[in-house]
Amino acid sequence: MLELKIHKHLLECGTDEAGRGCLSGPVTAAAVILPDDFSHPFLTDSKQLSEKKRLQLKEIIEAEAICYSVTHVMMEEIDKINILNASILAMHRSIKKLTTQPEFIAIDGNRFKPFGKIPYECVIKGDGKYLHIAAASILAKTARDAYMEDLHEKFPAYNWKQNKGYPTKQHRAAICEHGTTPFHRMSFKLLPEQLRLDV
To answer: Which residues are annotated as a binding site?
Structure first.
């Protein structure tokens, strides 16, 4: 069972992102404030859960959270400011959209930039340690997956419905065969050197 939060007596939000290592699509972050009496036996890092479990937990989190928000930062911004800054920006925007502002921010990972004057702590593998970070990881992952599944309808050759934009062999083969789309991150190494594509 994960801990609820870092500071028992503060209104604390957890935040996490999804899609940082993808070749296409947005990087997506969520921020969540859970009530102090929240618990769930299956809630953990979204990567450890099946898609079915993630979707079930998404509904529970959205129904029971004090507040939550999700933000996509698109390819153009990722290419302009780099993926780390885009990930942090997505988290900042999610925190800003919360209807109740937190007194403390818990972040998954080891990099963050101050959000106003609100104190914060980075927690490596925090989505496997704290419920609010795990909840944010699930909301970010499910929102991004849904976005990529919608995009799949327009660009079925890349099989985003299955790979969600991650660098699978099939995804790279499709880039090689069909070229890139407006949804590819042009600042990323889309193909290994031996398969370089002139764009």
So the answer is: 16-17, 108
Kindly report, residue by residue over 81-120, the tens digit of the pLDDT: 999 999 999 999 999 999 999 999 999 999 999 999 999 9
Annotated binding site for a divalent metal cation: 16-17, 108
Residue 129: CB partners within 8 Å, gap ≥ 6? 2, 3, 123
- The structural domains of the chain, ordered by start, are 12-150 (3.30.420.10)
The pTM assigned to this predicted structure is 0.94
